[in-house]
Amino acid sequence: MTSTLLTEDQQALVETTLNFAQDHLAPRALDWDRDKHFPVDVLRKAAGLGLGGVYVREESGGSGLTRADGVLVFETLASGCPSLAGYLSIHNMVAWMIDRHGDDAQRERWLPRLCAMDDLASYCLTEPGAGSDAAALTSSAVRDGDGWVLTGVKQFISGAGASQLYVVMARTGGEGAGGVSAFLVDKDDAGVSFGPNERKMGWNAQPTRQVVLDGVHLSADRLLGREGEGFRIAMSGLNGGRIGIAACSLGGARSALDRSLTHLADREAFGQRLLDAQALRFRLADMATELTAARALVQQAAQALDRGDPKAPYLCAMAKRFATDTGYSVADRALQLHGGYGYLSEYGIEKIVRDLRVHQILEGTNEIMRVIVARGLTEAFR
After folding, report:
1. Is the Cα dihedral 185, 186, 187, 191 positive or negative?
2. pTM, entire model
3. Which ranges in the chain belong to alpha helices (H)?
4. Which of 103, 137, 192, 349 could in theory staple to 342 by disulfide, Cβ–Cβ 3.0 to 4.6 A?
5. Is 363 a catalytic residue?
6. What is the pLDDT of residue 3?
């Protein structure tokens, strides 16, 4: 990122976050990936810097930062480990949803511990039979006196099993988006269980499990927002989540590009440094240009979200599609520039490629992002 475009506060924020990423994430990222270890202790250190409640208002215990600030944070964290930066983006999405849509009692109960990351949080929308068509979810919440009984299965839940709090979307009414409500489910609620940790291509430093809800009894105060608002709440969270993941793609790809520069400067072939070969320099130039363009689009979307622009969902979808495609492409080209060394785990490039691949799928697949962009583009012609 270009520091001259940042305010003094943002420059200080990036510097602090970069020091954390370099000191606490990068040195152990390969080990965590290999061992499939979720370093909760390190996440709590991040919370000590205010990164557990990035968008949560200060009066609720958070840092009160803007979305434009947040994408700087997540890009910088991802330069140390995209997997953990991705989880932190999701945790912060959930914390913001409670701060934005919860009542005073819910904020007082949950947010202090979420901001300190004494409790972790997960977002539960996707189901085994309802992926991209999220409004078709079948998990149900049935009235039980003043409370509710939840039944269903959520799929591909980041942090599941380790998280204490789950924002769960379940059907309380008829078909479609209007029949969905959002609930706050505690890990210790009777009837909550988890599937095995999924064996994945990447994002191995955080768990991904099913969340199984078997007749979970919840009191009335566990409803987040009003009945029937769950899908709108879920989508409002995803707008921010999408640019968070987009920023994580930028950070991972930027790290891959930086490693490529170092590698090509250190290697020689045919009597010259690889870095002096014009063909390779052109590749590097394209990679840097594409990342800079993607970063500008992510910042534009973040600023639109900050000012409440009605086009923000459209811009967030556009930024998520472009930045995650670009990030993966840059990382893949960085691996190629490393030759055989790029394929070795110890160089860290192949991990970045594996981690960034899922960014094109989660928080809404990039095919769905195209649907959202096309809908916004053609709205005047309906």
Report:
1. negative
2. 0.95
3. 8-20, 29-35, 40-47, 67-78, 82-101, 104-115, 230-266, 278-306, 312-337, 349-357, 366-378
4. 349
5. yes
6. 58
